[in-house]
Amino acid sequence: MAEWWWSIDRELLGALILLMTCGMVLSFAASPPVAERIGLSPWFFIIRHALFCLLALPVLIGASLMNHRQARVAALVTLVVSLALLWATLRFGTEVKGARRWISFLGQSVQPSEFVKPAFAVLGAWLFSESMVHRNVPGKIIATLIMFSIVGALLLQPDIGQTALVLATWATMLFISGISWWIIFGLAGAAGGLIAGAYLMFPHVSRRIDTFLNPEGGGNTYQIDRALQSLLEGGWFGRGPGESIAKKLIPDAHADYVFSAAAGEFGIIFCMVLVALIAFIVIRAMMGAQRQTSLFARLAASTLAIQFAVQSGINLAVNLNLVPPKGMTLPFVSYGGTSMIAIAFGMGLMLALTRTKPEERMVTGIPTYKSALAPAE
């Protein structure tokens, strides 16, 4: 544990725990009205959110204790299990609003796609790095086939938001590993084609896009209207805990729209601090990744950081009505057990992959046990 403490990025670890604490505080502010509206105890979501945090913290610490080989093995096992559950969800999952995204596992409802994302980021990074070091290893092809397997299951659920995040993860690895601009332009064109295909194939996607582009056209804009109202009524410093009026009317104030609920009670300045904290986590992780001598560690840690940034950015953009609504949680802040634990697993792996090596600590003046016990020359 002492070796872990000296090698871990303590500022990054502290920022992640602080973000989790902010989520717990916002749960007190946003959850009670939602629970009362559906006939539950005002403490229902608060207690469950606290339990999720208590489970997520040891997952975060435990994953950060792994070495690179253990991180790869953990990612492989997690990906195999979660991918199998992802496909099993199509047959045995619970259908909610026309989509099958949840499956009962050991008495608990689990969303396998949440665990697929960090596992694919780490395992895919290893395959990409192997193909870059050993030209005869088809790592990129294998990673691409895994990506298609994940995307195929997600589209059949359907879950367009998670599909976009998995594709962004794969594109990140492809971009960081080095590709030509022609491929980048081709991927951009393919992304446009996928959006057009989703619009034509999935009615709920077309409805959301049509409503987003034409709010006056008769679509259901109740939730986003209340979210924007909450953002505006809070002003710079907010109305105070429990005083926001619009927050009490947002159906998902504790989950996808927790950022809007926070703005109504604590103000825009608090929201800016929250965004700055997320930005610090991403930038700090990217800087730590670039210091790694291992190509796998650099690629995997960078991909996990960008995955965290993209998910946060999508949630914030939905709250600000910059993109059509989609079910995407704000990491460590929104309510959701599967999401909380899966993100903790991914961030723990990111911490493990950005730990400093003994020779790097000697440069910074931090002694190791080996150097302390070695005889003087």
Explain what you see.
The protein is mainly alpha-helical. Helix content is 71%, strand content 3%. The chain is built from 15 helices and three strands. The protein has a three-stranded antiparallel beta sheet, with helices on one face. Helix 2 runs antiparallel to helix 11, helix 3 runs parallel beside helix 13 and helix 5 packs antiparallel against helix 12.
Which sequence of SSEs, written as H and E, runs from N to C? HHHHEEEHHHHHHHHHHH
Fraction in helix: over 70%
Main beta sheet, described?
Answer: 3 strands, antiparallel
Structural class: mainly alpha
Q: How many domains comprise the coordinates?
A: 1
Shape: globular
Segments where pLDDT lies below 50 for 5+ residues?
A: 361-377
> How large, in whole angstroms, is the Cα Rg?
22 Å
Describe the strand arrangement of the main beta sheet, using strand numbers. Answer: 1-2-3
Tell me the fraction of residues in β-strands, as a range: under 5%
| Mean pLDDT figure | 84
Number of helices: 15
Pfam families: FTSW_RODA_SPOVE
Organism: Devosia yakushimensis
Subcellular location: Membrane
Family: Belongs to the SEDS family. FtsW subfamily.
